Structures are given as C-alpha cells and as structure tokens.
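User: ABC transporter permease subunit, Alkalimarinus sediminis:
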Amino acid sequence: MLDLHGYGPSILKGAVLTVEVAILSLLLAILLGLLGAMAKLSPNPIFKGIATVYTTLIRGVPDLVLMMLIFFGGQMLMNNVSDWLSDTFDTDIWINVDEFTAGVITIGFIFGAYMAETFRGAFQSVELGQIEAGKAYGMTSWQIFSGIMFPQMMRHALPGIGNNWLVLLKTTALVSVIGLSDMVRLASEAAKATHEPFRFLLPVIIGFLLMTAVSEWGLKKLEQKYSAGVVKG
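Assistant: Predicted structure for ABC transporter permease subunit:
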C-alpha cells in the first residue's frame, strides 16, 4: 500500500524536503521577526520606518505573487550583479537562485513580517520595572535580554509563534508552483499519471496532519517550559 505504484519512496523524499523548507523558513522568519520587532520598538525613526514598510509591504502582497517575484526576479537580479562584477572587477561569479532557495527566502520573508508583530506585542508585555531592576543590578544589555526579556517575552509570544508556524507549514505547498519537487508536487504528478487523485492526495493530507500533531506537542512542551512558576487564574 505504501509503495503507491512505485511513487511512494519519491513522495516520502518530497515530505522530507517539505520539512526542510519549513524549518529553514521558520528560522529565517524568527530572525527577521526579532529584528523587525526591535526596529519597530526602536526610538530611531529610520529603523522604525524600514520595519513598518517591510511588514506593510510583505503582508499586503499575495504569497504566490511574492514567490514568483523572488524566484524569477531574484535570478535576474543575481545575473545583473554577476555582470556588474565581471565588468568592474573582471571576476566571473555565478549565483544561482534555485527553487529551494527561493522558496525558503519567500516563506521566511512572509512570515518574518507576521513574527515581527508577534514579537513586538510580546516585548511590550514585559514589565519595564523588571528591566530597570536588571540595570540597577548591573546586568549588561545582553544579560537583560537573555535572562529577563527573552524568557518572559517567549511566554507571551508562543501562542502567536505556534499559529504562524502551523500556517507556514501549509504555505510550503506553494513551492510546488516554482518547480520544487516537494510532497505536494510529487503527489500531484503521480495522481495525474495514474488518474487516481485520492490514492496520492490522502497520504499528503496524513503527512501534514502528522507534522501538525508533532508541532502542537512540541509547542505545548515549550509553553509549559516558559510558563513555569506562572500562576494561571
């Protein structure tokens, strides 16, 4: 049954690729989200303006359009950069924006904007008195961030992070439109070849449900960790 007319191993390989895209996109989204949140909370109007443009622009453009733009436009940009380097420094460098890279960058950029708002609200939930207490105790900025702000911020941010992660997981299916052989694309091709869509789409549904179940279990453990010592009303 798992052989699926010989397509089973390739679909399983596509599932692993889907997980890789999702995890790398999440890491990029968290990094951009933290930077975006700190920029929005910064007193510097330039940083705040850049972050506002980023979150507004990314959240306003359809995901599919952005993916096509980065995949095709990104390669054209890299071609121009290569030509400029060749003409200016006589250096022959070729940078290829493949489907995997374009998919990770696009999904990371999209969810980085959502993460920025999640982290911004979470940072604002940390009481200023505790930060001031850290300063009074002589803690460095990094010690205040890692020892006071981050643990408390995470408790408030985890519900939003979890929601973004589950949506991100489903969004990985978009990479199939730019030719990446993920689980959805391989299952669709097998369904077209055999004219048996349910036989191949059902494992895809089960695969995503399994990833969702594991994610919810992991998120619950993280919430328990960062809620330790908190009395719930």
